[in-house]
């Protein structure tokens, strides 16, 4: 006898063998017992979760010699023929290959004929959403008033593509993704029956990689059994699927928590050197921080995390070392990595940037941290008091002497746009790093681009930010209205005043590489009260 793959060998043959679809199964069994079966059903849900298997079991339940029954015997000729796929009364149709109006017309003609051996003629149409609009229209009348001996069972992974006119004529049952723990339990059962030694960590890794599809998990296990010899080990799963080990995710998170950029870069280098896909690593890492968040909030509830108990306990321990704000920051940084990756041919560079940002991240600072300063000439200095004068949607700082005769207070709302704000370039430079960090928390790509710029001058309420010519892409991206508005809003929050932005390209080298902006040169100039005459 030829070898039968596990996905077919372990295909459920009764309602009780269907894994993870209790609601759909109980609905069908109740309908059979009460003799209230609909003439058409729509089974919707992800791939590999049991839709077609359930349709075949329902066909057997209807045509079993004891049927209709919720527990088909599996031994009568009708049950055996349906299980073997040779029954003339159960017609399985691929919606992708038989999607046109001609095929549906043929179906309509054949519907009129009575079943050959069984009690019902059952049409199972898989991926029904791929039938054309004309085909659906041709099916409508038959679907609404079929012969009493005909049952339709439609299966689809995309129910939103099925026309409402078809949906309204069907009873819909939604099939859910199968949980990791349910898959692990089934894989353990299969391994024991097949006399295969498999580590528990291997089964958990297979379940995670299957994304809720039990059929995929069974296929992966089948392939691993063929790939390995006496025992399936974790190294086999990692090698075959190219996935990232759970331990590596914990190690990366530990280095992020410890704020160790060199160590986390070494881990990234090791993972990439082993041939792992950086995109897989990024998705797995986002999932890991999600699990840390849930573990921290739920105290490691396995039902919410859907991982083995020992993994949930390890997540709870690690979650105790990190705050929720740091987890949220990690989400922002990693999500921004996906956006940043669109501008790079390789994902490695965005990952390295993000890992360094994660290890340097600090707790969010207050929205308003520094008070604006006024530069007042020595001869005019006098005891002053500050007050805020509202001006529509803007707020300007006005200052006046308490005892000045006939004071002429400044009317802020009459201030023209060409009058400069009482904000100096020195104040902007003082809070510039705060601006970059706040922008990065809001939108990482904008913060990354802004970090390459340097405030050069502030005149008439316009702040000029200079970029090196090789960063013209950064300048162009920041010119977009939504990005410009974001930066202006954050600066206004930090300095209590509105300024407009102007992004330019420097005619010289990168601004921070100019001698006058070099830390050592700047310190020397300040120490000796000097000025730079010529570079080089």
Account of the protein in words:
The chain is built from 23 helices and 12 strands. Helix 13 runs antiparallel to helix 18. The N and C termini lie far apart (85 Å). The strands form 4 sheets. The chain has a 5-stranded parallel sheet with strand order 2-3-4-1-5, covered by helices on one side. It has a 3-stranded mixed sheet with strand order 10-11-12, covered by helices on one side. Strand 8 and strand 9 form a beta hairpin. It is of the alpha/beta class. The protein has 4 domains: 169 residues, 3-Layer(aba) Sandwich (Rossmann fold), CATH 3.40.50; 62 residues, Helicase, Ruva Protein, domain 3 (Orthogonal Bundle), CATH 1.10.8; 115 residues, Zinc Finger, Delta Prime, domain 3 (Up-down Bundle); 115 residues, DnaA, N-terminal domain (GMP Synthetase, Chain A, domain 3, 2-Layer Sandwich), CATH 3.30.300.180.
């Amino acid at each position: 006898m030829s070898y039968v793959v596990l996905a077919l060998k372990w295909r459920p043959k009764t309602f009780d063998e269907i894994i993870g679809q209790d609601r759909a199964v109980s609905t069908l069994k109740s309908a059979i017992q009460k003799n209230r079966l609909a003439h058409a059903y729509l089974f919707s849900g992800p791939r590999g979760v049991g839709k077609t298997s359930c349709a075949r079991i329902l066909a057997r339940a209807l045509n079993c010699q004891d049927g209709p029954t919720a527990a088909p015997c599996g031994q009568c000729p009708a049950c055996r023929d349906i299980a073997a796929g040779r029954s003339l009364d159960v017609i399985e149709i691929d919606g992708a290959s038989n999607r046109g109006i001609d095929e549906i017309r043929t179906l309509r003609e054949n519907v009129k004929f009575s079943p050959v051996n069984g009690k019902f003629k059952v049409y199972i149409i898989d991926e029904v959403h791929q039938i054309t609009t004309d085909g659906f229209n041709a099916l409508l009348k038959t679907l609404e008033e079929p012969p009493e001996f005909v049952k339709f069972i439609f299966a689809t992974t995309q129910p939103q593509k099925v026309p409402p006119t078809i949906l309204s004529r069907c009873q819909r049952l939604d099939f859910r993704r199968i949980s990791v723990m349910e898959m692990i339990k089934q894989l353990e059962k299969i391994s024991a029956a097949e006399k295969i030694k498999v580590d528990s960590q291997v089964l958990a890794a297979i379940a995670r990689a299957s994304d809720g599809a039990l059929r995929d998990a069974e296929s992966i296990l089948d392939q691993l059994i063929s790939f390995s010899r006496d025992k399936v080990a974790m190294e086999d799963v990692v090698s075959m699927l190219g996935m990232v080990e759970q331990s590596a995710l914990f190690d990366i998170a530990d280095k992020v928590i410890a704020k160790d950029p060199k160590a986390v870069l070494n881990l990234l280098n090791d993972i990439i050197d082993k041939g792992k896909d950086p995109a897989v690593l990024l998705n797995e890492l986002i999932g890991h921080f999600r699990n840390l968040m849930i573990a921290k909030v739920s105290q490691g509830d396995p039902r919410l995390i859907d991982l083995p108990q020992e993994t949930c306990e390890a997540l709870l321990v690690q979650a105790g070392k990190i705050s929720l704000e740091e987890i949220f920051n990690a989400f922002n940084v990693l999500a921004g990595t996906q956006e940043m990756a669109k501008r790079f041919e390789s994902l490695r560079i965005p990952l390295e940037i993000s890992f360094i940002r994660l290890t340097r991240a600090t707790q969010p600072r207050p929205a308003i941290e520094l008070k604006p300063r006024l530069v007042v000439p020595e001869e005019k200095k006098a005891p002053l008091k500050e007050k805020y004068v509202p001006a529509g949607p803007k707020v300007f700082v006005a200052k006046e002497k308490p005892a000045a005769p006939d004071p002429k207070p400044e009317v802020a709302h009459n201030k023209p746009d060409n009058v400069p704000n009482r904000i100096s370039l020195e104040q902007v430079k003082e809070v510039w790093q705060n601006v970059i960090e706040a922008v990065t928390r809001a939108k990482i790509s904008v913060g990354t681009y802004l970090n390459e710029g340097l405030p050069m001058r502030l005149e008439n309420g316009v702040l000029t930010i200079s970029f090196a010519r090789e960063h013209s892409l950064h300048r162009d991206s920041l010119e977009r209205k939504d990005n410009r508005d974001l930066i202006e809003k954050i600066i206004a929050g930090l300095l209590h005043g509105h300024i407009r932005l102007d992004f330019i390209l420097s005619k010289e080298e990168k601004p921070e590489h100019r001698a006058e902006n070099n830390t050592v040169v700047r310190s020397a100039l300040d120490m000796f009260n000097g000025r730079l005459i010529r570079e080089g």
